[in-house]
Amino acid sequence: MLLSLVVPVYKEEKNIPEYLRRIRPILSGVTEDYEIIFSLDPSPDRTEDVILEERARDERIKLLKFSRRFGQPMASLAGLSYSQGDAVIVMDVDLQDPPELIEQMVAKWREGYDVILPQRRQRTGEPWIKKLVAETGYKVINKIADVKIPPNTGDFRLMSRRVVEEVVRLKESHGFLRGMVAVVGFKQCLIPFDRTARFAGETNYNRFFGSLRIGFNGIFCFSTYALTLSTQLGFLLAAASIGIALLYLAMKLAGFPFPVGNPTIVILTLLMGGIQLISIGILGEYIGRIYEEVRARPKFIVDRAEGVGQRRAARD
Predict the structure, then answer these.
(1) Residues of 167-203 as b/e, b for ≥16 C-beta within 10 angstroms?
(2) Where are the domains of the chain?
């Protein structure tokens, strides 16, 4: 069987040699027939040169370089589109996704599972606020989303060929892989693990909040609950306003003296204005994503391809 590894990279020149040193013996123990596809956003460092140097020694190492920076989600989708493996693993190069799990993942795939998801038990090296944001984000997404995404799972996963083909066939342009795989479905299982700190370099996401855009894609691209929530808030405020009006009427009939410049008016005005702006912002998030889908721009543009086969066309 052919095993494909899709590795999105950006400014990772220090991690690639150690990553390959650790992963080669593991892959050789699983199968001799494998490919490692580095999906490269153009980097200001020597990441591309390091990949090409490694490729000169091993043709199973392959390169996709994009015409500009498209971001990690699109880099992962591009690697999936060009992969040829019977099973495909998406993982990071910083060794926070431990290569040692690959043997267990392949074993589960051979048992008949189509999607194998490593699930983080611990997130070493991350500040508490980032852990809190991640935990809260997963809870919110799973509370409101149309599909269930297992908590504490990233893009690190193994997918069978039929899952990869269905994911690539999806027309959505946001690239939220966790949600797209959940939409596709098929038989899944979890493998718990402890996530370690990066081997070298700095993360390309915000140290404290991660990628909020990816999180928002999980909320807005897989649920319309936020629109329903803004409507519910509108009805709630309207009911509260009627209640306050009736209360004021009763107090007026009872002869209660109202102070000049009643502060309640200011509070209600600010509250209603804030709710209106929040609702407009929610609408803007959905409209912006609709606009992105309608434009139907390419999800990625490949500038250089070294060793990869012809891109697999998505079936209609």
Answers:
(1) bbeeebbbbbbbbbbbbbeeebbebebebeebeeeee
(2) 3-213+298-306, 225-295
Distance (Å) of CA 68 to CA 74, 138, 171:
11, 30, 21
Q: Which fold has domain 3-213+298-306?
A: Spore Coat Polysaccharide Biosynthesis Protein SpsA; Chain A (3.90.550)
pLDDT > 80? residue 103: yes
Return the amino acid letter for 269: T
DSSP 14: T
H-assigned helices in the chain: 16-30, 47-57, 72-82, 102-111, 128-144, 161-169, 177-184, 212-220, 225-253, 263-295
Per-residue pLDDT of 246-260, as tens digits, reads: 777 777 677 776 665
Question: Rounded distance, CA 300 to CA 36, Å?
Answer: 19
Q: Is 0.70 topped by the overall pTM?
A: no
